[in-house]
User: Which sequence fits this backbone?
């Protein structure tokens, strides 16, 4: 009985943590374009960093290939930015929080946090969808 309760509790906690809206890649792309309408270079960053994906094929937040601390559509590095994002009220594991913290970062540091992928995103034309 105790084991059943523990399993149910864990399942509920897991579902709460991983629930929330899931969007198709095309819907994410549309949201990125709308959100960064005034900062088109961030549209290019999202394209290069994640291919406009927030989640992997299993529904988990997308993690970086080279650095597993990079998360979501904007590949925000949780090691360097996780605490600050949380203090500011941004959940970088959600699409909305990831986009909002990216905009915050951009306002503070420009494109510097994404310089590792600059060879990709500086070449893109943001007007093309």
Assistant:
């Amino acid at each position: 009985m105790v084991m059943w309760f523990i399993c149910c509790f864990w399942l509920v906690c897991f579902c709460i943590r991983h629930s929330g809206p899931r969007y198709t890649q095309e819907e994410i792309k549309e949201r990125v374009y709308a959100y960064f309408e005034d900062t088109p270079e961030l549209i290019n960053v999202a394209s290069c960093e994640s291919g406009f994906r927030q989640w992997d094929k299993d529904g988990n937040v997308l993690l970086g290939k080279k650095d597993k601390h990079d998360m979501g559509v904007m590949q925000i590095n949780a090691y360097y930015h996780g605490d600050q994002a949380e203090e500011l009220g941004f959940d970088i594991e959600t699409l909305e929080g990831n986009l909002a913290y990216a905009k915050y970062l951009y306002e503070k540091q420009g494109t510097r946090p994404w310089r590792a992928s600059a060879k990709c995103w500086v070449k893109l034309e943001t007007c093309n969808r």
Summary: The first helix runs from residue 2 to 18. The chain has one domain: 23-121. The first strand starts at residue 70 and ends at 71.
